[in-house]
Design brief:
The structure is a homodimer. The first copy, chain A, is α+β, with helices and mostly antiparallel strands. Chain A is built from 3 helices and 6 strands; from the N terminus they run βααβββββα. In chain A, a hairpin with a 5-residue loop joins strand 4 and strand 5. Strand 2 of chain A pairs antiparallel with strand 2 of chain B.
Chain lengths: ~160, ~160
Amino acid sequence: MNSRPGKETPPILYRDRVRAEWVDYNGHMSEAYYVLVFGYATDAFYDLIGMDDGYRRRAARSVYTLESHISYLMEIDEGGELVVRSQVLGADRKRVRLFHSMHHGEHGDLLATSELMLLHVDTTGPRATPFAPEIQARLDTIVEAHAELPRPSQAGRSIQLN
Amino acid sequence: MNSRPGKETPPILYRDRVRAEWVDYNGHMSEAYYVLVFGYATDAFYDLIGMDDGYRRRAARSVYTLESHISYLMEIDEGGELVVRSQVLGADRKRVRLFHSMHHGEHGDLLATSELMLLHVDTTGPRATPFAPEIQARLDTIVEAHAELPRPSQAGRSIQLN
């Protein structure tokens, strides 16, 4: 990630366009496909910290999504440009708290956010296991840089009627 | 919904089988498709309260998902049977708090849960608007019946490292 302390915007990890098979009968992108796009951004994050597909197979390691919290803020039509920015809100030896924000690629409006809890796993178990030192070092560098970013207002929310 | 007070299990609103296009290279259902399946269960809930597709078009009303919180608990392979049970945790004049639990259709294991905040909308605005009286009456009946069910342990969660 190209964030530096003091920079106000998290880095862009993924760009796409709303595909025909992602829209409902009203021509708007459906809920599940927001999650698909956020998943592609999460894959880009894994590449960034050195946990790309090749590493995961060789090392018998993977990262599981334990939980996600999605806020749907605005609709987008077929063909619309999507940009996903990603901020690490924290990490420990086995887990990462990652926050994606999806914006319209033309006018920049915030369309949706996704907050994720990710768990590092030894796939031979499968069981939770600490990150390798070189992965942990990359994560710690990102956590430190992103601590300077504003905290998203959607982070840490729970679903409540009142 | 066929829940009656004292009945311990929320009703089944949706059944399916994991389709080939829903699985990743490991043969497990991908995150976005859990959300797709939960979306089908939400559609079944709309039918149940009388807000089916025909009503929504005629009345120029719709229901938007504002937020969802998903807990991924267990993997399921291509071809596996899915059953979704649905519990209404609360409602007011414009909103419903809905909780889905996805189980394996054969051995019953809990695979994932999704908690949703849904907003009733006048699509001519679009703007939030109260439910029609007959819809509100159906909702209130379900809320009352489901108040007797155990509260799911995943309800009301937020994403936190500690």
